[in-house]
């Protein structure tokens, strides 16, 4: 039957055919042109110029996990957007932060959110955290053709594992390769600097408040050394997006809460521009 | 070869309608009521896994009676329809009216097609709006007609009796606990005027709660929270204050939504 969601008529046969609980599978059989992976790119001469998102960091603490991102999108040496959001809830117990081609990444997140929601509504239960992480892998892999042409999307996925009762972090490469990170992780152009900061400041027994301070410190250091990563914009009151996932679910810090963390760090940096110092031994 | 007997179209339709109605009447009823903060769904259903009430989309839920495999099929079709429509356009473009129309067309085509047996189902599609006057409740009988309902509605075995009981007692502005009490009372009255008791374990209860901070307004009421509400202790407790929040409901923002 004809693929028709635009006008009102009888549900096409594909809608009533028993099948998988995956929205992507349904799209693949019913309207494959809507799947981002099926898009054909015309032959290109050079790299495509499109806004890129930069740095995402994550760190876990005993009661959960924190995922945060800066707000800058760059296109070459130009700042394309100062207040882009790159960290999104994936569902009640997980979040995804994206670095890479912003337009494709946001589309991927939208489809990923829908994939998890669709499964949950059809089956009546949530996917396991591992299942969600694997699903994201598949989506990145389907973008490989574009990644080869410079339009890569590299997310960081974090969530509360309700079966194991702990926060977990997964990082990805452009081919969809997935690896679980322990303690902390970073992705994007500023990630080398962010990871250095995380490595020096991370402890196993941090509280939630300490962990949010930790990730903002790491973003501050990334912005300090990477021109594509935006530091906290105190003049325009644009602060990093910081999200916390615990056994109570996903929560995003309000602007006021973020401002408080950012201002405290900024005050200290006025005295010590390189940030807190770790012990030598 | 013998000529088939002539059956008038009226008779054929009447037979099909009777067949569907009998199937539906075998099942227990589902009631749907408006209350101050949204729409309440109550069904007698001892199963924890096979639901009669389900979430379709952000503000839309579905309730059904009749043959399980048939309404489950329609439910999944509805979820696919809603998710695809929201993905193609915007989450705001998914409406109960649109979904009810699609269900009506589907049921109507099946009912009047001689090649298929009529579905033995009766559905309710409800959407919670910003205020009580914006709530929408549609009842869809087996033949594909649509009835726009207000206040309260019942479908299933004793629907007529329960509906009239609800009509007399339901009023606007009921609290959740009041509405739940009324819904359970209506379900416990059987044909002969006798009363049974229904415990929390025998009930499937869900709400579309407009006050939920999440984008998805559907929530199941389970376990202790349901028992407390049934006992009438928690008249003013908002649905979300429960410590046993159902797993699920999600994201308070989508990248495309802002």
TrEMBL record, chain A:
Pfam families assigned: Proteasome
Which GO MF term does the entry hold, naming one? Answer: hydrolase activity
Q: Please provide the record's keywords in A-Z order.
A: Autocatalytic cleavage, Cytoplasm, Hydrolase, Protease, Proteasome, Threonine protease, Zymogen
Location of the protein in the cell: Cytoplasm
Task: Supply the EC number(s).
Answer: 3.4.25.1
Q: Kindly state one GO CC term assigned in the UniProt record.
A: proteasome complex
Extract the InterPro entries matched here: Ntn_hydrolases_N (IPR029055), Pept_T1A_subB (IPR000243), Proteasome_sua/b (IPR001353), Proteasome_suB-type (IPR023333), PSB_actinobac (IPR022483)
EC top class, in one word?
A: hydrolase
The UniProt activity regulation field reads:
The formation of the proteasomal ATPase ARC-20S proteasome complex, likely via the docking of the C-termini of ARC into the intersubunit pockets in the alpha-rings, may trigger opening of the gate for substrate entry. Interconversion between the open-gate and close-gate conformations leads to a dynamic regulation of the 20S proteasome proteolysis activity.
What are the residue ranges of the propeptide?
Answer: 1-53
Q: Annotated pathway, please?
A: Protein degradation; proteasomal Pup-dependent pathway
Indicate whether Repeat appears among the record's keywords: no
Primary role: Component of the proteasome core, a large protease complex with broad specificity involved in protein degradation.
According to the record's subunit comment, the protein's assembly and interactions are: The 20S proteasome core is composed of 14 alpha and 14 beta subunits that assemble into four stacked heptameric rings, resulting in a barrel-shaped structure. The two inner rings, each composed of seven catalytic beta subunits, are sandwiched by two outer rings, each composed of seven alpha subunits. The catalytic chamber with the active sites is on the inside of the barrel. Has a gated structure, the ends of the cylinder being occluded by the N-termini of the alpha-subunits. Is capped by the proteasome-associated ATPase, ARC.
NCBIfam families, per database record: 20S_bact_beta
Q: Name it.
A: Proteasome subunit beta
What is the native source organism of this protein?
Streptomyces syringium
Automatic annotation (TrEMBL), chain B:
Q: Which domain of life is it from?
A: Bacteria
Molecular functions per Gene Ontology: hydrolase activity
User: Does Hydrolase count among this protein's keywords?
Assistant: yes
Q: Which PROSITE patterns match?
A: PROTEASOME_ALPHA_2
Pfam families cross-referenced by the UniProt entry: Proteasome (PF00227)
Output a single Gene Ontology CC term carried by this record.
Answer: proteasome complex
The UniProt entry, under SUPFAM superfamilies, shows: N-terminal nucleophile aminohydrolases (Ntn hydrolases) (SSF56235)
Cite the annotated pathway: Protein degradation; proteasomal Pup-dependent pathway
Stretch list, region Disordered = 232-258
Q: Which UniProt keywords apply?
A: Cytoplasm, Hydrolase, Proteasome
Q: Where is the composition biased (Low complexity)?
A: 245-258
Q: Does the keyword Protein biosynthesis apply?
A: no
Regulation of activity is described as:
The formation of the proteasomal ATPase ARC-20S proteasome complex, likely via the docking of the C-termini of ARC into the intersubunit pockets in the alpha-rings, may trigger opening of the gate for substrate entry. Interconversion between the open-gate and close-gate conformations leads to a dynamic regulation of the 20S proteasome proteolysis activity.
Q: Which CDD domains match?
A: proteasome_protease_HslV (cd01906)
Output the InterPro entries linked to this UniProt entry.
Answer: Ntn_hydrolases_N, Proteasome_alpha, Proteasome_alpha-type, Proteasome_asu_bac, Proteasome_sua/b
Instruction: Report the locations given in the UniProt record.
Output: Cytoplasm
Regarding protein family, the annotation reads: Belongs to the peptidase T1A family.
Q: What does this protein do?
A: Component of the proteasome core, a large protease complex with broad specificity involved in protein degradation.
Subunit structure and binding partners: The 20S proteasome core is composed of 14 alpha and 14 beta subunits that assemble into four stacked heptameric rings, resulting in a barrel-shaped structure. The two inner rings, each composed of seven catalytic beta subunits, are sandwiched by two outer rings, each composed of seven alpha subunits. The catalytic chamber with the active sites is on the inside of the barrel. Has a gated structure, the ends of the cylinder being occluded by the N-termini of the alpha-subunits. Is capped by the proteasome-associated ATPase, ARC.
* Name of the protein in question: Proteasome subunit alpha
Species the sequence originates in: Streptomyces syringium
Record gene name? prcA
